Write the structure tokens for this entry.
Amino acid sequence: MEHQEHHSDQPHPVSSPHVTHEGYHVEHDGNGHGHYHPKETFITKYVFSQDHKVIAKQFLITGMLWAIVGSFMSVLFRLQLAYPDQTFPILETFLGHWAKGGQIQPEFYYGLITMHGTILVFFVLTGGLSGTFANFLIPLQIGARDMASPLLNMLSYWFFFLASVVLFSSLLISTGPASGGWTSYPPLSALGQANEGSKVGQDLWIISMALFIVSQLLGGLNYVSTILNLRTKGMTMTRLPLTIWALFFTAVLGILSFPVLLSGALLLLADRHLGTSFYLSDIVVAGQVLPNEGGSPILYQHLFWFLGHPEVYIIILPAMGLVSEVMSVNARKPIFGYMAMVGSLFAITILAFLVWAHHMFVSGMNPFLGAFFVLLTLLIAIPSAIKVFNWLTTLWRGNIHFTPAMLFAIGFVSMFISGGLTGIWLGNSTIDMHVTDTYFVVAHFHIVMGVSAFFGMFAGIYHWFPKMYGRYMNHTLGYIHFWGTMTCAYLIFWPMHYQGLANVPRRYYDFRLWSSFNQFDDLNKFITFATITAFVLQLLFVFNFFYSIFKGRKLRTLNPWNANTLEWTTPIRPGHGNWPGEIPEVHRWAYDYGKDGRDHIPQTEPVNPDETQH
């Protein structure tokens, strides 16, 4: 790394903030420059905040609440699968006619599955994960006072919140929530007369997704603008931490793919209420021939999966970035192959747009065309494998600190490997046609995307919690949370591969009528027990999180993990603007650990001409 001009390490004089006659706080940086922030009330500071750190906490806590709701839904439908002939009177008490006689009704079962998928994929692992860490880390790690547009940043959260309210309201209406699956394939989702879940609940699902997409576009444009334009002096693109690279590519993916789903959803709304036939043709419902002609439900699949597959990487890329940072800090080693990691993130971003039709191998597509998507699907395993090898090499002979964050980072790699390997099976169209819509797909999807992404998210929360709240989370509860969740995740999803190979179909309400599937009755009970245990463990994490905000051990040092990145140079509880004086200048990359006999060298320390090159 080239030698940079030496800047004084002495602290800058800081004038006390004061309120001008216009009602603004002014923070002076010691060079005559003022940073203006409106005088804040409780509403402007904690509700309609424009501080990226507060907005990050809003995304995080909203996402956590949604995670509890979505996970509890999985407990409910697992109870049905494990005990299809038993009744639970308490369910009728809370769910009313949806659990008549203490048993979940078939139409509500499909509503639970639809809402579970929608909530976890979009509102937790997309909005909750990216919304939290992009907002919190981007300005802090690139050396910016805030996002490029704090107002649009605030609006991105409130569109997200409004989308949440609309979706949740569908649980309270008499006909119930949407029940066409989280993908909402027509014609089931396009015909209000198809079933109860295709009525108002489906409209609310579409409106909610439209609001959610607006939120993601506002956020994504802000993230990209901030990273490209607001980096501090010396922070070249090749000195960015991998967290920022991952969040940058995630935002690009969202900006380019979410509008496609928005168009697909709006066309679906038109088919439902305006008499159009984008997705409908030659439909007979209850003996009545509908007038719709010329549409194709396959068109919706193309539009959905053009977002749906990049969505997989919108979820997993931020987790990859968080894990890379946590792993390097806690292994006390430079991340192995920094430029290869950046290149693999870029390759994943490009290939993510070229593989959507592998979700449609059974839709009747020409096998010759399918062969191209097989090739591209298997090709995307290469940059993923590069990242795995680089993580493992980073761990190799490291001085590993097994914090809860580090355990979840290592657990992420374990899950990503074991879940990703089954993707090689599903990427092959000839095998995929036999296991599509079986529990094999459920197992693959949940391990490689669901559990892996959650592990990355947990690693990030445990690692940056002290910077968020000025306190530590309880490590003992963190260890219990990790080992319990890791064990339960494998106990839940690994057996599902064998169910899938036996062609047990997903989304079925009751398997008692199929003698060939009765052999899995005990296994279904076992999986349900592991699911309930995993849910309780997540409640333990939620308790640890909220208890630690108020009662956790206080942070006494600026840099508790001895990390190199800029966020640890701010005050323990940074105000709006992050740095009270000048923003520090960057002189080196983010991963100078164990270099020239030193444990770590912060990015703000000038490069010595005698240093070895990384």
